[in-house]
Amino acid sequence: MKQASVENGLSTYVALLRGINVGGRSLIRMEDLRNALTASGFRDVRTVLASGNVLFRAPEGDAATLTENIERILSRALGRDVVVIVRRLDDLRELPGRFKGVENEPGVRLFVTFLPESAGTPFLVEEEGYRVLCATNGMICILLYGTGAAELMGVIEKKFGQKATTRSWNTIARLLK
Question: Which of 1, 3, 80, 92 has its CA 20 to 30 A from that of 24?
């Protein structure tokens, strides 16, 4: 059953920051991230893990506009540019059905790559090492056999000519809790 993430005119969103706190690089304290967004008027701001995943509430609006606003806020507050992709929490709630039947295959890791909203081109591929299950609304559901998530993100970015960010299924599950 789909849960609505709109209450009192506010929708719940997820901001996904690209390349944050990965391998000891691009370090951002989650407290600084929360404080910057809260000071800018976002409500109920909370981070999930330390890899740039932020849940927040804001008036119902366009994800692209929210993305631009958050990138501007973070540039001002943190003194550097950060690529951000915003999705409604309800959009992420559709993802579990995309992985039905494959979530327990041995040796398979599940990932979702997020592209800017404008990237809706179908991208269905099976190559050695991975299989793309679906591509919809700028979200690409991927099965990865073994390692190579970073390399796969590079393939996707090249295909679409846009920056992307990828999350493991475990991270998506934490965001949905």
Answer: 92
